[in-house]
Design goal:
Shape: globular
CATH superfamily: Tetratricopeptide repeat domain
Strand content: under 5%
Largest sheet: none
Radius of gyration: 14 Å
Order of helices and strands: HHHHHH
Number of domains: 1
CATH architecture: Alpha Horseshoe
Oligomer: single chain
CATH topology: Serine Threonine Protein Phosphatase 5, Tetratricopeptide repeat
Number of helices: 6
Helix content: over 70%
């Protein structure tokens, strides 16, 4: 049983938290399965709105799924979460990613 199956089994057993959702989303992303990663990473930010790593991964999954407009919005919200948490590095990274996403979406 692989890591994705382990995480999915934990969810089926009723466990659900930010770390589990982030781990599952990241595992899907690592396998190139961005569309499957997206709902789990979104849920991770619902569980913990200041989880900057989850915001960043969610935006990256949206980019990989060819949804740059949505990614730019997620990165924007993630920057706010990272700033609130005091996670300056994550905020800086997401600013760069937001700029790329905005450009890919046809913006400035």
């Amino acid at each position: 049983m692989g890591i994705i199956e382990n995480f999915e089994a934990m969810l089926e057993q009723g466990q659900d938290n930010a770390m589990l959702r982030y781990g599952l989303g990241n595992a899907y992303l690592g396998e190139g399965r961005a569309e499957e990663a997206i709902p789990h990473l979104a849920k991770a930010t619902e569980h913990d709105p200041l989880y900057s790593a989850a915001w960043k991964a969610w935006g990256q999954a949206l980019m990989e799924a060819g949804r740059p407009g949505e990614a730019a919005e997620v990165f924007e919200r993630g920057i706010g979460a990272a700033d609130e948490r005091g996670d300056r590095q994550a905020a800086k990274e997401m600013q760069v990613f937001r700029k790329r996403a905005t450009k890919a979406a046809g913006g400035e």
